[in-house]
Specification:
The structure holds three protein chains of three kinds.
Chain A: H1 2-9, H2 11-32, H3 35-60, H4 68-87, H5 103-107, H6 123-146, H7 152-172, H8 174-177, E1 188-189, E2 192-193, H9 197-223, H10 225-235, H11 237-241, H12 247-273, H13 283-296, H14 301-321, H15 323-340, H16 344-363, H17 368-377, H18 379-382, H19 385-390
Chain B: H1 5-40, H2 47-68, H3 76-98, H4 107-129, E1 145-146, E2 154-155, H5 156-178, H6 180-190, H7 192-197, H8 202-225, H9 239-249, H10 254-274, H11 277-294
Antiparallel strand pairs in B: 1-2
Helix pairs in contact in B: 1-5, 1-8, 1-9, 1-10, 2-3, 2-4, 2-8, 3-8, 5-6, 5-8, 6-8, 9-10, 9-11, 10-11
Chain C: E1 14-23, E2 26-36, E3 41-45, H1 52-60, E4 67-72, E5 75-76, H2 82-88, E6 90-93, H3 105-111, H4 119-123, H5 129-141, H6 157-170, E7 175-179, H7 187-200, E8 205-209, H8 213-219, E9 222-227, E10 230-235, H9 237-241, H10 244-251
Parallel strand pairs in C: 3-8, 3-9, 6-7, 7-8
Antiparallel strand pairs in C: 1-2, 1-4, 4-5, 9-10
Classes of the chains: A mainly alpha, B mainly alpha, C alpha/beta.
């Protein structure tokens, strides 16, 4: 019991951090935001799955994938295919020359549902495919790259190239994928209308809960021996290899895990936003997701969520109000964060925020209680030695 | 298909020549990148934007000559090439000293920071030149074509670009392998500490190398204007191909870079004739990735003792 | 000159025969024969570029041989993967201390504990009392008992060398290979290390590369001199030191 508390919640500090996030996305946002804004947050939170995955494979594993959009997209497409088939029942598509197939297929003179689409009539198959298709692709890429010891930088470039290839393929195969417009006009999930406000609220909560689940799973991985191995590999790969570990298998594992997280995000995106298109697959969205993780802090699972929310809000705000400025800002953000704040917001919080919080609390007598807390909290890091040996250390 | 053998031969030659033009731009881009990535180990995602800088420079000079010295119009292109080299190189110098030099031990971070730089540069192009594509007015002698036989028709701009590429390649080769500077670059890349100990100013070497790589990308931009029109994202379209070219050739090998640029461009251009352009690209990129899995160190790298 | 090896009762734990490797035509190791006996501390010396480190690279699988065989306890190492070689009982220390600087001494040692080496094993690895006992035992052996909770990058250079040796001891290897274990150590640390090596060679074989002749004298049971990738001489330290060929190689012409 104590073990689970330590490894999942990361002890007292980790538990508080997680609680704050949970309250924010499960209570504060739903209460404070109107349904339009809330569904926007819901959309951003689907990107956070990717960012959380990137913390695992980039921050800890040192594997910078510039193709996470591939997995987000594949997860999304799998879900979208199911929803599209449901929206294309013969009744509502009777004006088409071939009723019962998705509208874009009809426009492309396709007269029969392609083989690839057949199994997506089944919801359980779809749920399986959402996870399995992207994870298997990651497995294949991972085995091919890491077993052959393709270096870090080469790996980044290759994943980017794969993202480019997949985008071209999706756009090129219009009849099969809906081309550049993607799969649009998704309506119901097993007969349940996903477009009205109440169902959107439910989907928002499902999404938020899944995200917290992924963060917990991420914590479990990072606090296990595997988490320490990842860090060790990042710094001294040879030493790990010559200590009897098959380095490639660990990299493959963490890359697949990150892919699976991204895929869940993609599927939730399709459900909440009601479409999926190649603009979430290619090079640009993939690298944007890296900046989410970088801004939040590449070594912090929670930071990645905050980073995603902040950058996405910024993007929406600036590209609505000052479209000219957005790319300057985004580019500048990349440069400044990477050069001067490699640990992102989480790093700033560790070095400044905590202190600021305790000083703030000191100034206000009302918060006398939290002073004590802050004081107890800060030495935890220094005084871990003896007890920590009994337990796993927390990153 | 109903084509006779001789017609087919002519098509193959023209398609092959088409591939050569692509090859030239790709090679010029890749040469710059090979110097920066292969010799310095720096990932410059903004490399494509230096091509765009060169292309816009050519465009500006072409407009200026047309307006103020119409008589010089036939010759402006030579100035444009030099200006493209100098401006892109100077910009590279600046970028190296402000950004890259602070990130030498963090290759993945360099990649991200230069990506940010590329976004900023693209938006700057958009703000200055507008989102619409522009084309430089070409001198008359560069247009038109050369027809050695009735069925074969080879555009003259392609020949010009080929000449330019050849000149650049030879110059870079001589600089890297026959000059004192080249020796310093290669020494620095092999053993930075030792080079510093024997009195090489390694910081200056880094800066020069990066600037040279960017300058060559600028020349690629000038060459690019003869075969296409320039938009803010013109260069970024090439960046993935270029990186694959360099990686495929074996990062530190110039001969490898040339060979891989040639095979990628030719494969793509020949396949384009049979398949759609996008499928040709998909197949080429996939093939490169597959080959990279078999030879992760690239085609032309030698086995070294570590 | 052939080694003055006498009658060998037991089969050597490591037999290298006809081993060669070339890099672009340059033969770093050329038709080399070398045997390491059980419970033996075998030191390899030789001028720079003699192929000493390459030899260790070949044994532990970092470099693949062009020809020849490396037999370890009846298993052919030259065809095995690096991690399988380690699991078979070969541990190797690198020339520069190679430890995990961001982890504590305890975690460094724990990392080499031979359980939880597969993905899911590592995921569900538990720090049991057994593990803690083993880590403490090894730490005592490498003089780091007091520093278990210190972050490894705060250790002195010599202590880092010991820590890496300790990480190897965690694996309890039958063959321990050390590449310049006392480089950068103070005199007293060297004495301690010699003592350490003599202690840990009980029940296992140790193959050491070293330049420091005083240190070699204090630990070696047998010395092999490498020159240009082949064995120049082999035998006791005294025999090797008085060998005219060896003197020529070391002192030049």
């Amino acid at each position: 019991m104590k073990n689970a508390y330590e490894s999942l919640l990361g002890g007292k500090q980790g538990a508080i951090g997680l609680l704050v996030l949970a309250v924010l996305i499960l209570v504060v946002f739903p209460l404070a935001l109107d349904s339009f804004r809330l569904s926007m947050v819901g959309k951003y939170l689907t990107y956070a799955f990717v960012a959380v995955g990137l913390v695992l494979c980039w921050g800890y594993g040192g594997i910078l994938s510039l193709g996470q959009g591939i997995f987000f997209g594949l997860g999304g497409y799998c879900m979208a295919m199911f929803l599209k088939l449901e929206a294309s029942d013969p009744e509502s598509t009777k004006i088409q020359s071939t009723p019962g197939i998705p509208d874009f297929m009809d426009w492309n003179q396709i007269t029969e549902l392609p083989m690839m689409w057949q199994p997506f009539h089944s919801f359980s198959f779809t749920l399986l495919a959402v996870l399995a298709v992207p994870t298997l692709l990651a497995l294949v890429i991972g085995i091919a790259m890491f077993k052959r010891r393709v270096g870090d930088v080469y790996f980044s470039i290759v994943t980017q190239a794969i993202a480019a290839i997949l985008t071209i393929l999706i756009i090129g195969q219009q009849g099969l994928t809906g081309g550049v417009n993607g799969i649009t006009d998704l309506r119901t999930l097993n007969g349940w209308d996903i477009r009205d406000d109440s169902s959107k609220l439910i989907l928002y909560f499902v999404n938020a809960a899944l995200l917290i689940g992924c963060v917990l799973l991420g914590r479990f991985v990072l606090t296990s021996k595997l988490g320490r191995l990842l860090m060790a590999m990042r710094d001294k790969e040879e030493r790990v290899r010559f200590s009897g570990y098959d380095v490639a298998s660990f990299k493959i594992f963490v890359f697949c895990l990150a892919a699976a997280f991204s895929a869940i995000g993609g599927a939730m995106f399709a459900l909440q936003v009601g479409f999926m298109s190649p603009s979430f697959v290619g090079i640009v969205p993939s690298i944007e997701m890296v900046i989410f993780a970088a801004v939040g802090g590449r070594m912090s699972l929670l930071g990645a969520v905050y980073g995603t929310l902040l950058v996405s809000f910024g993007k929406t705000y600036f590209s609505e109000s000052f479209p000219e400025l957005w790319l300057y800002l985004m580019g500048g953000l990349f440069i400044v964060v990477v050069m001067y704040f490699p640990n992102g917001l989480a790093g700033l919080w560790e070095s400044h925020g905590r202190k600021w919080l305790s000083r703030f609390a000191l100034g206000n007598k009302v918060f006398g209680q939290s002073v004590v807390k802050a004081r107890v909290m800060s030495p935890v890091k220094v005084a871990t030695p003896q007890p920590s040996r009994e337990l796993e250390t927390t990153p | 298909m109903d084509v006779s053998l001789s017609e087919f031969g002519a098509i193959a030659i023209m398609q092959g020549f088409n591939g050569l033009s692509v090859f030239c731009v790709l090679l010029l881009m890749a040469l710059g990148l090979a110097i920066i990535f292969g010799q310095m180990g720096v990932i410059n995602m903004a490399h494509g934007e230096f091509l765009t800088v060169g292309a816009y420079t050519t465009y500006v000079i072409s407009s200026l000559t047309l307006q103020y010295f119409p008589a010089m119009q036939p010759y402006y292109f030579f100035f444009a090439i030099i200006a493209a080299f100098v401006i892109a190189g100077a910009l590279g110098w600046l970028v190296e000293s402000l950004m890259i030099s602070k990130l030498y031990h963090r290759p993945l971070d360099t990649l991200l920071a230069t990506w940010g730089l590329s976004l900023v540069m693209q938006q700057a192009f958009r703000s200055i030149f507008g989102a619409r594509e522009v084309g430089a007015e070409m001198p008359a002698w560069i247009m038109g074509s050369w027809a050695p036989s009735e069925a074969i028709d080879i555009p003259r701009n392609g020949l010009f670009v080929m000449g330019l590429t050849l000149l650049c390649t030879v110059t870079i080769f001589l600089m890297l392998y026959r000059s004192r500077w080249g020796l310093q670059v290669r020494a620095t890349m092999q053993n930075r500490v030792m080079s510093r100990a024997v009195g090489i100013n390694t910081k200056k070497v880094d800066r020069m190398t990066f600037a040279l790589g960017c300058g060559v990308a600028g020349v690629a931009g000038a060459a690019f204007t003869t075969i296409g029109s320039t938009g803010p994202t013109a260069g970024s379209l090439y960046i993935v191909d270029t990186f694959l070219t360099v990686v495929f050739g074996g990062a530190a090998s110039l001969v490898g870079t040339i060979a891989s640029a040639f095979s990628i461009a030719q494969a793509q251009s020949l396949m384009e004739f049979f398949l759609s352009g996008s499928m040709a690209k998909v197949l080429t990129l996939s093939a490169v990735i597959l080959i990279l899995m078999v030879r992760p160190q690239g085609l032309f790298s030698s086995k070294v003792r570590k | 000159m052939n080694s003055p090896a006498g009658f060998q009762a037991a089969k050597p734990v490591l037999s290298i025969e006809g081993l060669s490797v070339s890099f672009d035509g340059f033969k770093a190791v050329d038709n080399l024969n070398l045997y390491v006996d059980r419970n033996e501390v075998h030191v390899v010396i030789g001028p720079n570029g003699a192929g000493k480190t390459t030899l260790l690279d070949l044994i532990c699988g970092k470099t693949k041989a062009t020809a020849g065989s490396i037999d370890f306890d009846g298993r052919e190492l030259s065809k095995m993967r690096e991690y399988d070689i380690v699991r078979a009982g070969v541990g190797r220390k690198f020339q520069n201390p190679s430890i995990y600087e961001n982890l504590t001494v305890f975690e460094n040692l724990e990392m080499s504990y031979p359980k939880g080496r597969k993905v899911f094993g590592a995921l569900f690895f538990k720090r049991s009392a057994e593990v803690i006992a083993r880590v403490e035992e090894v730490a005592a052996e490498i003089f780091l008992s007091e520093l278990l909770d210190m972050q490894a990058d705060l250790l002195s250079h010599g202590q880092k060398q010991w820590l890496e040796i300790g990480m190897l001891l965690m694996q309890d290897p039958a063959l321990l290979m050390l590449d310049e274990p006392v480089a950068g150590m103070s005199v007293s640390e060297r004495v301690q290390t010699a003592e350490l090596l003599n202690r840990i060679s009980q029940g296992r074989s140790v193959l050491v590369i070293e330049h420091d002749m005083e240190f070699v004298k204090s630990i070696a049971h047998r010395v092999t001199v490498l020159h240009q990738g082949t064995v120049l001489a082999e035998g006791s330290m005294e025999a090797v030191q008085s060998n005219p060929k060896v003197i020529e190689v070391y002192l030049g012409h």
